[in-house]
Amino acid sequence: MSYQEFRDIFYNGVWKQNTGIVQLLGMCPILAVSTSVVNGVSLGLATTIVMALSGASVALIRQLVPNEARIPVFILIIAVLVTAIQYLMNAYLYSLYVVLGIFIPLIVTNCIVLARVEAFAAKNPASQSAFDGMAMGLGLTAVLAVLGGLREIMGHGTLLSGIDLALGPSAKSLVITVLPDYHGFLLAILPPGAFITLGCLIAGKNWLNQRTESRQARIEPVISAA
Amino acid sequence: MRRTMAKAALMTALNLSAFALFGTALLAFIYNQTHERIEKSVEAEKLRLISQILPHSLYDNDIIKDTLEILPDPLLGNEGKTTAYRARLDGKPSVVVLEAVAPDGYSGKIFMLIAIRENGELAGVRVVSHKETPGLGDYIDIAKSDWIRGFDGKSTAQYNDQDWKVKKDGGKFDYMAGATITPRAVVKAVHKALQYFALHRDALFAGGIR
Amino acid sequence: MRKLHTFHGGVHPATCKTQSNGSPIAKAKLPSKLVIPLRQHVGHSARTTVEVGERVRKGQIIGQADGHVSSAVHASTSGTISAIGMQPVAHPSGLPEPCITLIPDGLDEWMELEPCEDWKAVPHSELRHRLRNAGVVGLGGAVFPSDMKLYAHKHKIKTLVLNGAECEPYITCDDLLMRERAEEVLKGAELMRELLYADEVLIGIEDNKPEAIAAMRDAAGKHSGMEVIAVPTIYPGGGAKQLIRVLTGIEVAAGVRSTDLGVQCFNVGTAYSAWRAIRFGEPLISRIVTVTGNVESPQNFEALIGMPIAELIAQAGNLPGTTGLIMGGPMMGVLLPSDKAGVVKATNCIIAASDALFPPPRPVLPCIRCTRCADACPAELQPQDLYWFARAKNFTKAEEYHLFDCIECGACSYVCPSNIPLVQYYRFAKSEIWAQQAGQKAADAARERHEFRESRLERDKREKAEKLAAKEKAAARSEPAPVSDKPDTKPQDEIARKIQAAIDQAKAQAAEVKPKNTEQLTPQQMAEIAEIEARRARIREIAQASTDAQPRE
Amino acid sequence: MLFSPYITKPDSVSKIMLQVLFALIPGIAIYVWFYGPAILVSLLLASLTALSTEALMLKLRERPIAPFLKDNSALLTAWLLALSIPPLAPWWLIVVGTMFAIAIAKHLYGGLGSNPFNPAMIGYAVLIISFPSQMTHWLAPGGLGSAGLDFQSQLNYIFRGALPDGLTLDGVTMATPLDTLKTQLHMNGQMKSILEMPIYGRLAGVGSEWVSLGFLLGGIYLYARRIIGWHIPAIFLITLFAISGVFHLMDPARYAGPLFQWFSGASMLGAFFILTDPITSPTTPKGRMIFAFGAAILTFLIRVYGGFPDGVAFATLLMNICVPLIDAWTQPAVFGRKDER
Amino acid sequence: MLSALLAMGAIAITLGAVLGFAAIRFRVEGNPLVDKIDAVLPQTQCGQCGYPGCKPYATAIAEGTADINLCPPGGEEGIHKLADLLGTEFKPFGGSTVPKPKSVALIDESTCIGCTLCIQACPVDAIVGAAKQMHTVIAAECTGCELCVPPCPVDCISMEPIADTTGNWKWQYPVYAIMPSQTAP
User: Nearest chain B Cα to A68, which residue?
Assistant: First the structure.
């Protein structure tokens, strides 16, 4: 329960094992809902909540579940959480619910949720598991935000459009028009645009990693020589 | 061996069902807590769409309740039963909202809501869903362009049959260069809906059409 | 007129043959020394039969065929053996191989030869034996021992194909041989036909050698069942598989013996050498070598095996601007790492390369899958795919796409618009696969041996325990078991003491200046010791060579 | 000089690509004759964009620039793309398309030789998906539009988006004959009366049919020079002819005849220049035939039932995906192993 | 509400029973992965990995108790193969394990005292000889494991690297300059 432990979990979830651009899990919602920042972040946060809660629940009950019923029980827990969130969104964030539509129930089948539950929550205590789920979810949300932002700017020339769906009509003033009089680059909004942009994001991350690696490699001998 | 197998099966079954029952109970509880609110949200959404083409000043009745079932009609292009919403002001009929389908969009059907005042004038038209080429035919959507507002206030009295066409075909309606099929379909469908209204006007506001 | 078949692909590089085929075969002058590799053929290296300092006469065996697939090596002239050891040879690696260095005495004194007038009376097995002892191997480049190829096993050989196509540019040694010694070539063919019981002899010569065709046709008139056939000039029409295909329509796949399909193929030069070996008893101590390219007077030499290539080039006249020496033709030849190496039985041509003749390669671009290579490939492979697999080191896939059917003719590289060294990739992939297979075989053998050892130890332990149990049982029956375990420890002490003594003795021995007790040894023992010494020396030498070789990589 | 063979045929990627560019010239010349010189502006713009994008990408990828710029492959991509989009398109359209084709469709996949999709067609697909309206304004051939545009006005429109006073875009442009046919059929027009419209000529569209003939000529030149094989163009055209012929015979009122399919749209350009791109087409003879067959069927289906004006580009891209599979399935028997399968 | 509970409960009981039954009925015995790993290992049986032979090491890898980078005779190539097989990432050799050139043992026959200790150490029976007789290594069978070196009381065994010969020489991977102007002198 040390600070270092939580820091490692956070770093792992948000950057090192990022679900969106490293593990490439749950591609279907990532590609489908990342047409705008608001859509992406909304689904990302919904997934984060599910992941944190499912992590905690599974960690709590892991001793009670026999091995052969492990996966059905985990899925059951995730499905219950997702359905609960779906009801709540339907009731309180109806317009956003309409936009995200099918992708909310699809969180159940988002393999990243089950993957983390299997890989982490089934072996760790509840607080760590909840934190891991949250970190992973935030990593996913971050990717969805960047992806959605890029696609929105390229496709529509705006940012945060549709924020009124989440925060109410008064938030409409938050919408930023990045490129006025923009023709719109439709490809960015369409599924191929999602693939291409995600590919560029992955490339960008790999490039960053390589750069830090080569930098470290360059520094090390100097240190050892000194 | 057989014993352990049966035992393992029983244990797993009990475990799984315990979780299932707990989960189901939890969900049932949440559902009970939220379903009223969900129904309200659904209604509000419908109302929101209708209210876009139906100014609040024009009615004081509960239009969600004051509905009428419409049977398939070639003039409306609907293939199944649809609902017409009737707006009344001080008990007098003011506007009817019809659901119409333009079957000949560039890539499939275009679903619309058409609000017609009792005098035959269009109060407003909105496209509910369509599959037109993005960026090309989708300017019929209010989210993309104001083109659809061009119908506001038009009626068969104002424009004769020849005028209910896009300008390229000699009519009065604008269109965006390069994409004429979509507006053609929409104009045609609106025109037909007005014709339908003219035929069934009284029935629409009264009991119903058989 | 015989109906000729065609093979897929092929290319038409400039033939460049007129430079060297204008003058008759010249006899190369006796060189200052001869470097004769012990392995100039496919198979096992020959075993040395001479010692340093020994005088040998021309034609004397200096290396005896060793093993099933092997061939003898002879002194190319009379002289003294000056060295036996590792020397650079005509091999692309530049690695040394065991060679015998012979300093000619200038007398060129033949040993007694055993001519054979009536070879038809000699049994076939004896003829084959003589060919093996005469060191006759395929002179077309494959250098497979000919005696082995002249045995039909149980197959009925219908056609003996004599390969005079000589499709590689620049090379004219077979052309000149056929022009000047057609009669003896055909007598050799007659001998081969006899050994193979073949029905017909088809001699394929590319139609750009009209003089050779005429000479051979003239000579063939005296033999029955021999036909000289002009085949279209196309590279690699002189490849054995391709020539067999053109003349008979039969396709011999990789890994298939042509005798299984009723055909056998020999180079015209081999036929000539076989004839000389049987009729006159002359071993294969010289061959015709085309020396061309960047030299003063390109021509064909009859050169002694072992003649240093530098001296051969000098006899044709060195020219400035030579950038390297190619053994073989420009399509399949080997760039020689050293001109010190001697002419071997496979040396059909030496080209002095210059930038004017062979411009440096143009920049390599990525493959654009244009399939010009596939159109040119005589083996009907998909070189672009093989290249891709070889480059990605995906060897399983390369094998699946029939990498080993590639004959490395170079037609694909020749036509490649991206200038990719395709053949080099195939060679790389092939040698990697061979190494892998060898490694796998060794690992399997090691596993098997290890498992056998484990089971043996297990068995020994069990047997020992059983024996002990039986003993104890017997002891228990007769008398009480001994209480102390002293008898067990004593022998162990004894053993340790003995070992220590032996160690001391060995150390003392090792410290002594004269390490070996060389007195009172039988000659046999001495020979054994010498052999052990030689083996050790060789291993050290190999080890040394490899450590020397390390920095090169 | 390190490995055998030490001699090579004096052939190069650069020369092959140059021949293909050369073979495009008759078609381009006819294009200019009918539609004015606007296409030359597109070609120039595309070429410049392609070369500079190529250089930039090579630099980013730390590859030598000169040998790759000289291979002419970027130029070929640029020309094919420029020929597939309306000449009177705003300048940024061709620039965006070419940049996408070179940077993303070619270099992100590994550059020359590694791109699975035809870069020019990717560029086209991106443009038609993203800017459908701009992509449907084709210049009317000389004498057909309500007014002709001189070169100055064409340039003015391309770079500044301004048309001379009193002219609308609809006046000087029109949909392609293929597109018009589809639209008219959609509007319940009759095939016979549609084909009597002034934009239809002897074989297909006025002007465009001659451009197609020009590309056919170039294609025959390429075949004569053995730059391309016969398999892809022949099978593509024959299949397209056959399938459109069958449909035409079944219902002449709804399906145009095979010659119309041949000489309208990008059929000829596709058959000889686009589908034959060696990098993105199969390498085995049988594979090439399957590839061309599939492309023809898809082209026809997209033209008749699809939502886009022409089908060649998408048919090409869809068949490009299948190339590795086709190649793996159609490996020819090798020398001496013909009875093994 | 009640119907939902009943339905879910019934489904869960049935599926749970099936699962419990299947878990016992289809249990997999043994581990085929061990053989696959063993096939990749070089079979030198040298024990440098800390396990008494290749098979025990393979078992340890399969169980997840050993790292894949402990086999010096397999070289980096071997680690790559193991990483591919197990779907893990490549790891460079650990601190103490360093790959060496492939070698064979050579017994200096003049010093050998015939103590048979090396014969007992050889895991593949590649040393022949009898007590008080000179021993020799069958080079073709020697895996270069070096296990015979430490037991020798007179230090007469040395490891000789296998040299490059024309027999085991390999064609190199073609390396060429894309831009000759940069590399040509």
Answer: B12
In a domain, B81, yes or no: yes
* pLDDT at C302 exceeding the cut of 70: yes
* One-letter amino acid for residue A182 of the chain: Y
Q: Rounded mean pLDDT of D247-268? A: 90
DSSP classification of residue C514: S
Which residue from A minimizes the CA distance to B21?
Answer: A76
Asked if the Cβ–Cβ distance from A186 to B135 is below 8 Å, we say: yes
**Strand duo C349-354 + D138-139: pairing:** unpaired
Q: Cβ of C415 and D9 within 8 Å?
A: yes
For E18, the closest chain B residue by CA position comes to B9
B17 to chain E: which residues are within 8 Å by CB? Answer: 8-9, 12-13, 16
- CB distance A108 to A78 below 8 Å: yes
Neighbour tally for A199: CB within 10 Å: 13
Residue B210 lies in a domain: no
CB contact residues (below 8 A), chain E span 34-93, against chain B: none
Q: CB distance D64–E174 less than 8 Å?
A: no
ipTM above 0.85 for this complex = no
The CATH architecture one would assign to domain E101-164 is 2-Layer Sandwich (3.30)
What was the pLDDT predicted at A226? Answer: 35
Of D130, D168, D307, the CB nearest to B106: D307
Binary contact (E20, B11; C-beta < 8 A): yes
In CATH, which superfamily holds the domain spanning E32-86? Electron transport complex subunit B, putative Fe-S cluster (1.10.15.40)
Contact call for D130 and A199, based on CB within 8 A? no
pLDDT digits (tens, 9 = 90+) for C534-545: 666 666 665 555
Report how many helices (DSSP H) and strands (DSSP E) chain E contains, helices first: 6, 4
Shortest alpha-carbon distance between residue A66 and chain E (Å): 9
Same domain, B150 and B93: yes
Measured in whole angstroms, how far is the alpha carbon of residue C414 from the centre of its chain?
26
Residue in chain E nearest C552 by alpha carbon: E164
**E24 and B8 in contact by Cβ < 8 A?**
yes
Tokens of residue D66, six digits: 């000169």
Residue E108: its chain C contacts at CB < 8 A?
A: 536
Do E55 and C454 meet the contact criterion of CB atoms below 8 Å apart? no
- 10-residue averages of pLDDT along chain E (185 residues): 85 86 74 81 80 84 82 81 81 65 82 84 83 80 83 86 80 65 35
User: Considering only CA atoms, which of C408, C346, C431 is closest in space to residue C41?
Assistant: C346
| Chain B nearest-CA residue for E9 | B17
B77 with B12, same domain?
no
* CB–CB contacts below 8 A, D to E: 9
Q: How far apart are CA A132 and CA C370, in angstroms?
A: 52
Task: Look up residue B37 and give its amino acid.
Answer: R
10-residue stretch averages of pLDDT, chain A, 226 residues long = 81 84 82 85 89 91 81 88 88 77 78 85 87 91 92 86 74 79 79 89 89 72 40
pLDDT in tens, E54-96: 888 888 888 778 888 888 877 777 888 888 888 777 777 765 5
User: Would you state the structure tokens that stand for residue A111, as one six-digit string?
Assistant: 């393999």
Judging contacts by C-beta atoms under 8 Å, the chain D residues touching residue A191 are none
Gap between the Cα atoms of E165 and D71, Å rounded:
42
Task: Enumerate the β-bridge partners of residue E160.
Answer: E104
Burial class (CB in 10 A: 0-12, 13-18, 19+), D143: exposed
Alpha helices in A101-125 (DSSP H): 111-116
Instruction: List the domains of chain C with CATH numbers.
Output: 26-30+135-292 (3.40.50.11540), 365-469 (no CATH)
Q: Output the six-digit token pair for C48.
A: 């040395």
**Hey, is the C-beta of E19 within 8 angstroms of any chain B C-beta?**
yes
Residue E20 is encoded by which pair of tokens? 């419990």
- Cis peptide, bond prior to residue C13, ω within 30 of zero: no
